[in-house]
Amino acid sequence: MHRGDHAMLTRRALIQTAAASVGSLAVGPLVSYAASPAPRRAPFRGKLSKLQILQIGVGGTIAPADRAQLEGHPDVVFTGLCDVDADALAEVAKDRPHAFTCRDFREAFDKHLDKFDAVVVCTPDHNHALVDLTALKAGKHVYGQKPLVQQLSEVVAIENALKARPALVTQVGNQRMGPPGRQHAVDILRRGLLGKAIEAHVWVSGPPDQGDGYFYYGGLKEPSPPPANLDWNLWLGAAADAPFREGLAPVRWRSSWDYGTGQLGDWCTHLFDVLYFAYDLPSPIAVLAQTRTPSDFYHAQHVSSTLTYPGARGADAARFARPEFVVHYRDKAQVPSRAAVGLPPGEFGSLGTLVVCEEGVLSVQPEGEIEVWRGGRPVDWKTIPGQGEIVARNHWHSWVDRILGKSDVLVQTPFSVGARIAEAGLLCSKAARYPGTELRWNKATLAFTNHEEATKTIVRREYRSGFELPEVLPVT
Predict the structure, then answer these.
(1) Per-residue pLDDT band at 212 (split at 50, 70, 90)
(2) C-alpha radius of gyration, the chain, whole number
(3) What are the phi and psi torsion angles at 259 (to 5°)?
(4) Do the Cβ atoms of 431 and 458 come closer than 8 Å?
(5) Could you tell me the end-to-end alpha-carbon distance of the chain, in angstroms, rounded to an integer?
(6) Closest among 268, 281, 321 to 427, alpha carbons compared
(7) For residue 249, which of 262, 235, 263 has the smallest C-alpha distance?
(8) Angle at which helices 152-164 and 415-431 pack, to 10 degrees?
(9) Pseudo-torsion of CA 87, 88, 94, 97, nearest 10°?
(10) Which stretch of DSSP H or E encloses residue 140?
């Protein structure tokens, strides 16, 4: 979902490609590990016998595509629209006169709670957890854009909310898991068809050093009055008070420390998903990041990071070859050495996920192109015996159908997995504030056990009054 020096991979183009390749819904063997118990059909309200959806964040780059895909489902209607940009809100609302509108998402939950059953969240990253948790607390199904959270502490907040609302259907905006390519990669690795996993390498092409694109590192503009159509206070939401600066909204916030997650945090959902679905990875136990461009306002560039996970221990010994499973995550197209992983000379794509196993190496691109090598020689992955049946599906429609009670529909990626993937990306992007220092992570205590300063500075934020994270308690 991005631009930058890989401009051909724009969010809209990727979504159109994914949608075009989608066929029937997947009901194959992957359901057992990715799906939660099917909830009862949502109690639809009013006169509409359809799933009624509120979209929070209707403009920008991804919201129109999400809305178009969901409106293509025969049992969906958007009954609420919310955006801090009055112009974007008016443009979308003019073709949907039946939908209520508001600028402040809190108003939707205070005044219109009976008008929607589900929520689609397309805000900037720093407000993802705030809006997602508000929706879960209200008992609404949620489709939330990635990365699911912007702070490490928000990972735990989301997970606690899911425990309190187990019947709700959640989905992260990870449309690349719809077509069969990445599903096949998961299947090969999960079944151990290349042997036990040794290590993984993940890389992304950007961000550009400067420029005026999706990820912007061109320097801060001077404070100025926000445009009349933008409610800057609501745009800030959970973030600290700060002046408007030209360009931050609607696009350039993604590189900023306060509002975005940088290239590593932004792309992790589309690159780590294969690893998490294949190996059900727990929280990392350590992260080490190196960078030659540390920054205060922006996330760092030229980052090379290493995540360490518990590996071949106890029941996991059948999946991993070593006591620790290591994932290397890099930006700026810092690809792994082919010789070091036993591959012949050649080139990798500008983004990718590569898994080194005892009996072979698998590489998969964001759109699902797979390459496999055995003994350093390429093999046709389709000829590998033991694979399960994979069927393409519509990523957005699967979420809807699951809400409507179709228990055999695969929802990928649910919040339960998306939160853990976001944790990995955040650890790598945030650890670059302390380059060259290995940080030992304890998710249970939300602390780096060997670095008090890092715990104080990169784990959580202070939320503005009126925009604190809601606590989601079990329904009694």
Answers:
(1) low
(2) 21
(3) -120, -25
(4) yes
(5) 40
(6) 268
(7) 235
(8) 170
(9) -110
(10) none
- What the block records as the tokens of 347 is 């080139």
Q: How far is CA 1 from CA 130, 148, 321, 325, 425, in A?
A: 22, 14, 33, 28, 15
Residue entry with tokens 């080194």: 356
**Per the structure block, which two tokens stand in for 289?**
């990041």
Convert the pLDDT of each residue in 298-316 to its tens digit.
999 999 999 999 998 887 8
pTM above threshold 0.70 = yes
- The CA–CA distances, whole Å, from 465 to 137, 233, 376, 391, 470 equal 19, 12, 58, 47, 12
Instruction: For residue range 160-211, list pLDDT tens digits in order.
Output: 999 999 999 999 999 999 999 999 999 999 999 999 999 999 999 987 776 6
Residue 20's pLDDT band, with cuts at 50, 70 and 90, is very low
Q: Do strands 141-144 and 370-374 pair parallel, antiparallel, or not at all (unpaired)?
A: unpaired
Rounded to whole angstroms, how far apart are CA atoms 10 and 3? 5
Opening angle at CA 435, ends 434 and 437, nearest 5: 75
Alpha carbons 21 and 16: distance in angstroms, whole number = 9
What are the backbone dihedrals phi and psi of residue 84, each rounded to the nearest 5 degrees, phi first?
Answer: -75, -10
